């Protein structure tokens, strides 16, 4: 078994045992799950300080997943690259310092590198089988509710907009003048909720996912951690990388994942989707919505 597979096994085990861990152990496990590449370069004292727990907490956690101690536990993470954990205001201050120093070329390079890295990291952890399973659930359901607030509201609306060119059962929530939990009032096990939120997690998205699960709605969760409150317990959970030199989590990998998920929905759909999309765009041409090329 190579280091990548060993690392995945360790992370999966931590996720599976999450509910059995003490609050202190959960703090340690969360840090490992969200910062696996930080583990490979840290001593037990360094990572304990970063996670704000005692070193023995990491030692006990390592033993719980089958290792003799922290040194053995961190071996699968040796090739990791450190991931930053700074606040949004601190990132804004840093961006201002970059501007004053005139090093905008460096900032440009960092932004491009982060965008590419986020996409690579996201799709490295997602299988085609997992996407197909979620796509099947979406295609075969009665209604699809797509929820994101803040920056993810635009991502949710874009997904619904693209889907609407060939399908009619997609709805972005919360609707204008409503709240998401009301929009889900009559949803049941025939429906799907696609929920999106990254740290700091929005309480209204967490509440909507909780209500949806209570009503039997299938949940497709997109977030930045395997122990995100919306991914835990979701039928289909996808972790996106959102690191960036910018002051707010990046949406690049979220958008890429949503576009890929929609392409899978189209791929598993019935043949009528081709005619529907063609009819939709033909109508746009007829209404003059598209600027026609000169003949």
From TrEMBL:
GO terms for molecular function: carbohydrate derivative binding; DNA binding; DNA-binding transcription factor activity. The keyword Transcription regulation applies. Keywords: DNA-binding, Transcription, Transcription regulation. Pfam families: HTH_6 (PF01418), SIS (PF01380). PROSITE patterns: HTH_RPIR (PS51071), SIS (PS51464). The keyword RNA-binding does not apply. Residues 8-84 form the HTH rpiR-type domain. Residues 134-271 form the SIS domain. This is Putative HTH-type transcriptional regulator YbbH. It comes from Roseovarius aestuarii. The lineage of its organism: Bacteria, Pseudomonadati, Pseudomonadota, Alphaproteobacteria, Rhodobacterales.
């Amino acid at each position: 078994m190579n280091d990548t597979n060993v690392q995945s096994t360790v992370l999966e085990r931590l996720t599976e045992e999450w509910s059995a861990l003490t609050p202190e152990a959960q703090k340690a496990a969360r840090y490992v799950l969200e910062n696996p590449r930080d583990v490979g370069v840290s001593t037990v004292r360094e990572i304990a300080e970063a996670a704000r727990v005692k070193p023995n907490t990491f030692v006990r956690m390592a033993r719980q997943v089958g290792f003799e101690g922290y040194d053995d536990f961190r071996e699968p993470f040796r090739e990791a690259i450190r991931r930053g954990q700074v606040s949004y205001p601190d990132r804004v201050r840093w961006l201002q310092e970059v501007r004053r120093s005139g090093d905008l070329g460096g900032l440009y390079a960092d932004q491009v590198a982060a965008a590419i890295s986020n996409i690579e990291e996201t799709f490295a952890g997602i299988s085609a089988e997992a996407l197909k399973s979620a796509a099947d659930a979406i295609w075969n359901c009665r209604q699809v509710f797509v929820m994101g607030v803040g920056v993810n509201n635009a991502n949710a609306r874009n997904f619904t907009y693209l889907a609407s060119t060939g399908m009619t059962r997609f709805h972005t929530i919360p609707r204008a003048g409503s709240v998401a939990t009301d929009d889900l009032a009559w949803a049941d096990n025939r429906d799907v909720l696609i929920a999106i939120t990254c740290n700091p997690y929005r309480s209204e998205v967490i509440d909507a996912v909780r209500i949806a699960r209570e009503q039997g709605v299938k949940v497709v969760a997109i977030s930045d951690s395997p122990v995100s409150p919306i991914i835990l317990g979701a039928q289909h959970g996808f972790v996106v990388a959102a690191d960036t030199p910018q002051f707010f989590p990046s949406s690049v990998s979220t958008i890429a994942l949503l576009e890929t998920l929609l392409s899978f929905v189209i791929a598993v759909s019935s043949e009528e989707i081709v005619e529907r999309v063609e009819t939709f765009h033909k109508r746009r041409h007829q209404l003059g919505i598209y600027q026609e090329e000169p003949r």
